[in-house]
């Protein structure tokens, strides 16, 4: 009996991934995580100080603007908005955009975006490789962007910086690919946790975002140690209190009425999150497609935000001070109509600041926008005598993290972060209910991070084997339009061609269009300037890359991408396995999985001939397809499940 129980326990622990979690594992990861945490904590202090210095000079001295205070603010504190030289705002921000554009284009293009998106991409696609220069360049451009008024936060940049430390430490300790990824997660959790003083929430956010549904228990110990170490080090200078001051007497009574109030608020927040992510997607796509030199994009973005700030200077910076004003009850500064205007303008300003390549993050403004939505909606309810038993500060705090969970698809870490910031469990029950409702309503395809893989897993240990992936073929999903280049072309020529064609990957072929390798745009631009006119494509291409046949299933395509670490694969002719005929990407597979047309609604009830017929019809005319297949109750439920995250 005892031996049988022992074997069952061993199998259970092995399934959880704790098989290797012994004394050696703990000792090894304690050393590595403390090292990552120390680097992160020291960098947080330097990053914070640099933002303060730049902000004091440009916002304070040049523009004559003092941002709303945050942290250690009493309920009696009063704040009034005043900008002495409002016309200087777009000029200063445009100048900062020029510097940011030149630095990022010349030295590190990967630092111009949110930061967290880059970490996700490196974690899933590049075997955990983040260049060392990121740790140097990212804090420079992000400090300048935030310090001059960019509508973004420091959390994403700090996550990318600390993740770069994790990648560097992985090389120093000669870790394998999986261990390097754990070090990257540890750095990300440490950077975010110490930046906003939520060490447990930051650690859980990194794991939840990067691993998704494959919650990696082996990462939990290293991430917690790194995050707590970074928090302890940075707290020596920044303090260990939360970023917001919460009134001592705030107590929310939990009744049936409050459940109804917070459920209603959460539904509105979830719908608002969909609108917010749509704005981000449109603006980000615009700046990615616009045909102008890359270094000019931050200039345009900063100038646009500067013009918005002439009428609404409240949008400058992350905006935590605005939430602090609402929490302490200074409603004279933020009446209802001002709140709604700021919410709307802040959404666009944040999307432009981050989407144009300002090097700052969606993280902080998303929390701020969520909090302001809660305050504005609850104020309207109070105006009409509805839900008057719910105080506005509580609604603000709960809405912050409900909106954040909906936008980032990280409900569990949002609950933990909310609990840490309020400094107790008195809002835990309404917070949990609101987060889950807004998370479900927002759907699984709405995330502020474009590289966030939602809905299916791409881990080697737990591939999501959907029926649709086995039923559909690569030939039905691939894009027949692709670009190729010869291996003797110089790198500068390849860069020019890829810019003109707006492609991120090209096939390297010989004179007979036979596949010899593939080349990614990022590999080309990372080549030193002096070698771009000397080296050829052959020097940097991936030789003998994996490929797919049109008859291969999408499941095989997904598995090949996972094992190779490539997110795009070329499709070759069945009669000649070196002749390229198309290209398929992870996005193509994802779109097929998340297709909302009836073709994927009730696939079990359609035989193979009907599947082929409806696929062909869908390609020709989606309206005809919708008339061919009527929605049954089961299909309607499937359609709802396709939108929902769970």
Strand count: 9
Largest beta-sheet characterization: 4 strands, mixed
Strand content: under 5%
The CATH topology annotation of the largest domain reads as: Clc chloride channel
Widest sheet, order of strands: 3-4-5-6
Query: What's the CATH class of the largest domain, please?
Result: Mainly Alpha
For the termini, the CA-CA separation is 39 Å
Structural class: mainly alpha
Q: Identify the overall geometry.
A: globular
What is the radius of gyration?
25 Å
> What number of structural domains do the residues give?
3
Mean pLDDT: 81
CATH homologous superfamily annotation of the largest domain: Clc chloride channel
CATH architecture of the largest domain: Orthogonal Bundle
Describe the structure concisely for a colleague.
By secondary structure, this protein is mostly helical.
Write the layout of secondary structure elements.
Blueprint: H1 2-16, H2 23-62, H3 88-107, H4 116-125, H5 134-147, H6 155-172, H7 177-195, H8 199-211, H9 220-238, H10 256-289, H11 297-311, H12 320-328, H13 336-355, H14 363-383, H15 392-408, H16 411-422, H17 428-442, E1 458-459, E2 462-463, H18 467-471, H19 474-477, E3 484-485, H20 491-501, E4 505-509, E5 515-520, H21 521-525, H22 537-540, E6 542-543, E7 547-548, H23 554-564, E8 568-572, E9 580-585, H24 586-593, H25 608-620, H26 622-628, H27 633-643
Give your account of this protein's structure.
Helix 8 runs antiparallel to helix 16 and helix 15 crosses helix 17. A hairpin with a 2-residue loop joins strand 1 and strand 2. With 646 residues, the protein is mainly alpha-helical. It has three domains: 420 residues, Clc chloride channel (Orthogonal Bundle), CATH 1.10.3080; 132 residues, Roll (CBS-domain); 46 residues, no CATH class. The radius of gyration is 25 Å and the shape is globular. The protein has 27 helices and nine strands. The longest helix is centred in the N-terminal third of the chain and has 40 residues. The chain has a four-stranded mixed β-sheet with strand order 3-4-5-6. A three-stranded mixed β-sheet has the order 7-8-9.
